[in-house]
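Exercise 7. Given the encoded structure of a 570-residue chain, write a plausible sequence.
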């Protein structure tokens, strides 16, 4: 077992009686590293105690073990039962002044999991501590340096900026924590912990770098670093943070369409490039365990990333996370295989993967373009696919029929507010010119629907997912109105095809529409309208020119539409 030179080792017999740390009060000009503990002596574990999740109902088990070889073993079994998932060891509190030191250094041999080095002061953090991540390499001895500036006040995995920085002059306890949401056995061997003076970074074998330095050292983020430089973001990413960066590899950037990257790197596109890069950054430190337990997170760009578990790991929007928990002094990097792009409300719903029926309905009702308008400011309450499936049998199929297009559009508009709002307890007018009631007491409800996920921010609005379809009070459309909706839908679909020189497809749509009006909406047509459609169908069967077919049928549909509008206005 390697140890520091005996000239700097303090007598263990007097140093480890009922204390975690050697009580070493130093001035502001400490000259050497100081061993705080190295687990030799008769009672190396007298100061240590275990604190597991059973204090809050969990069943994890873990604690310190002292095999007598001058090391401490932090080992046990992590369990996620009863909302548990952490195990920790720490020393009995005793005030000590570490103001002359730059940070702590630990020599450890882990199992490949990420642990946390913790510190507590006289400022009590509810269910938390100041902590810094300590990633380990399975079976390998490592010396890891943790500057005091990298410790963050954290509770239940969330950083609490309100507690400020760690006051190194008031450290009372040091410990280790595991809370990576991975059930099963864990084991980490600790050889020693030292306090290292200012300017001694070179004395540790594994000094931690900031996010930019970490990305440069990895060698696989050259494009990302170059883009961050071009966008003027390097100084920000080297700042105090902390930040969580979902970093696309060079290969991910190479997947962009040809010329895209070159265009973004031009000086005139600096703002656009910055908007894309800041979409990859979340304020705060989100470890892999935090990401796997969340549905979404707001980026510094202002919109949200969506998280989803897969059989092989985690997806962030449409990107796969290929490596997690690359820790830096000012945050953490998760490596992804695709460049992320800003999303409007339609694209956000598509990425979420649970609103397929809604998107199909919006397409049928010709509302997609309005929901994608870049200058829109919308709030959407999208029902999930399960919500649509809960409607009475046949309801969705009936609404998707061309004759019910107007009714379908009215229902969908009832789920949309024409302004961007976060949820509060009041009423909001919808695009359907009706109003929905939002109640924020307890579970948030919109009319009779429960909000499943709130405040998913997109570029042109915000989404609040709900568990049932909102149904406004709508008058039953008249037969004439249903027939008019069929014609409107046909023209909406046919005109773009005709203009794209797909005349055959346009003519086919018009022909099917004419036949549908005669077979399914005959009660809405007078004899003159029915005759006009039959004559048009006879004519196109005799003429094989697609263009003439399309125009003949279009003229007939226009004539019938005018007739229906006149009859419905009486």
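Solution.
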């Amino acid at each position: 077992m390697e140890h520091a030179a005996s000239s700097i080792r303090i007598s263990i017999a007097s140093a480890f009686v009922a204390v975690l740390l050697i009580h070493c009060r130093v001035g502001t000009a400490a000259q050497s590293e100081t061993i705080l503990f190295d687990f030799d002596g008769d009672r190396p574990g007298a100061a240590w105690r275990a604190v597991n999740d059973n204090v809050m109902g969990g069943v994890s088990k873990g604690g310190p073990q002292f095999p007598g070889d001058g090391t401490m073993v932090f080992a046990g079994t992590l369990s996620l039962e009863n909302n548990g998932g952490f195990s920790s060891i720490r020393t009995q509190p005793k005030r000590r002044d570490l103001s002359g030191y730059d940070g702590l250094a630990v020599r450890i041999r882990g199992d490949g999991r990420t642990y946390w080095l913790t510190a507590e002061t006289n400022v009590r953090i509810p269910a938390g501590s100041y902590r810094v991540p300590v990633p380990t390499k399975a079976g390998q001895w490592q010396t890891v340096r943790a500057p005091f500036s990298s410790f963050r006040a954290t509770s239940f995995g969330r950083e609490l900026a309100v507690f400020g920085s760690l006051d190194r002059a008031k450290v009372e306890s040091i410990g280790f924590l595991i809370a990576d949401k991975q059930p099963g056995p864990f084991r980490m061997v600790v050889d020693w912990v030292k306090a290292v003076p200012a300017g001694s970074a070179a004395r540790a074998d594994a000094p931690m770098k900031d996010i930019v330095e970490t990305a440069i050292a990895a060698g696989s983020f050259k494009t990302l670093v170059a883009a961050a430089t071009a966008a003027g973001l390097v100084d920000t990413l080297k700042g105090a943070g902390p930040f969580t960066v979902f970093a696309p590899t060079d290969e991910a950037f190479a997947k962009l369409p040809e010329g895209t990257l070159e265009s973004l790197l031009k000086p005139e596109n600096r703002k656009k490039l910055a908007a894309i890069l800041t979409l990859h950054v979340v304020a705060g430190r989100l470890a892999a365990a935090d990401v796997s337990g969340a549905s979404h997170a707001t980026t510094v760009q202002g919109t949200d990333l969506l998280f989803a578990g897969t059989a092989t790991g985690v997806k962030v929007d449409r990107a796969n996370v290929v490596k997690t928990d690359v820790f830096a002094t000012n945050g953490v990097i998760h490596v992804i295989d695709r460049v992320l792009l800003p999303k409007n409300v339609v694209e956000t719903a598509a990425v979420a993967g649970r609103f397929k029926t809604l998107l199909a309905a919006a397409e049928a009702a010709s509302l997609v373009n309005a929901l994608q308008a870049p200058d829109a400011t919308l709030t959407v309450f999208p029902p999930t696919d399960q919500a649509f499936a809960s409607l009475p049998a046949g309801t969705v199929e009936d609404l998707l029929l061309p004759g019910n297009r107007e009714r379908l559009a009215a229902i969908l508009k009832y789920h949309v507010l024409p302004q961007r709002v976060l949820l509060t307890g009041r009423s909001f007018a919808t695009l359907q010119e009706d109003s929905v009631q939002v109640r924020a007491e307890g579970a948030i409800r919109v009319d009779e629907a429960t909000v499943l996920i709130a405040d998913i921010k997109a570029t042109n609005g915000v989404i609040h997912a709900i568990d049932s379809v909102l149904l406004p009070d709508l008058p039953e459309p008249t037969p004439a109105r249903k027939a008019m909706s069929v014609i409107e839908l046909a023209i909406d679909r046919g005109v773009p095809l005709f203009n794209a020189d797909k005349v055959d497809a346009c003519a086919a749509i018009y022909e099917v529409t004419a036949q549908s009006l005669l077979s399914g909406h005959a009660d809405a047509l007078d004899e003159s309208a029915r005759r006009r459609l039959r004559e048009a169908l006879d004519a196109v069967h005799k003429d094989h020119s697609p263009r003439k077919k399309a125009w003949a049928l279009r003229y007939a549909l226009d004539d019938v539409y005018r007739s229906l509008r006149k009859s419905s206005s009486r």
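Remark. Residues 546-568 form the longest helix (23 residues). Students should compare their own answers with the one above.
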